[in-house]
Amino acid sequence: MSGHSKWATTKHRKAAQDKARGKLFAKLIRQIEVAARDGGGDVDVNATLRTMFEKARAASVPMDTIDRAIKRGTGELEGVQYESVSYEGYAQGGVAVIAECLTDNKNRTGADIRSIFNRNGGSMAEPGAVSWQFQRLGQVYVDGSADEDTLMLTALDAGAEDVVKDDEGWLVTCSSGQLRIVVEAIQEAGMEVKSGELVLAPSNTIAIEDESDARKVIRLVEALDDHDDVQSVWSNFDIPDSILATLDA
């Protein structure tokens, strides 16, 4: 697994333990609104909305908050109109970075993201300069107690491409279009799915062996992730566990 995936996993675990969830709630609510606007408010029909709904519930977002977000998305309640936009750039050492955003003001968000890159030793790039290095995939985290043979058979039969063990449990990878099918198959087989989401996976990674360079890369990625309009940050760095542990400490 790439260093970025290890970092994202650590961030996911910290988020689950963090009691100050206002920013996480706001991002999830925004994703729900956009999913409902684009595909309707029925979670049984709108697969994207269903995924966002499940993420919000896993993060303990109240049901009435989710319901209002869906209604704002479908137009039943007044709300801000968000649009999707991605910004690409480079961190220390030529590391590729993509920030996926939902915003009601592209000019403001674009200026903010450019400033974050500049302040943290990175640089913005033109659209397409970085994205060709990534592929949209589905990733499913399954509880580590799942039986390997059962999970392997179930996931592959459902269309998964790979099943590997990591520190958090089992990581199942599939094409973007198979995500919902794979998640449901694993759940129906009685195994616990911790999360299932679409990711941008790098085709190749860049090794960062120097602690100073690693710190600069992580600082940029985390600064982007902290911005209210940024929903996801993807990168292709590969930082050794020993250095990640030092930075985490």
Question: Quick one: biggest sheet?
Answer: 4 strands, antiparallel
- Termini separation comes to 21 Å
Overall form? globular
Q: What structural class do the secondary elements suggest?
A: alpha+beta
Query: What is the name of the CATH class of the largest domain?
Result: Alpha Beta
Q: Give, in order, the helices and strands.
A: HHHHEEHEEHEEHEEHEEH
Second rung of CATH, namely the architecture of the largest domain: 2-Layer Sandwich
CATH topology of the largest domain: Alpha-Beta Plaits
Poorly predicted regions are none
- In spatial order, strands of the major sheet run 3-1-2-9
Radius of gyration: 18 Å
Write structural notes for this entry.
The protein is an alpha+beta fold and 249 residues long. It has 3 domains: 3-74, Orthogonal Bundle (Arc Repressor Mutant, subunit A), CATH 1.10.10.200; 83-132 and 208-248, Alpha-Beta Plaits (2-Layer Sandwich); 133-202, YebC, transcriptional regulation domain (Alpha-Beta Plaits). It has 9 helices and 10 strands. The strands form 3 sheets. A 4-stranded antiparallel beta sheet has the order 3-1-2-9. Helix 2 runs antiparallel to helix 3, helix 2 packs parallel to helix 4 (63-74) and helix 6 (148-157) crosses helix 7. The two termini are 21 Å apart. The model has no long low-confidence stretch (mean pLDDT 88).
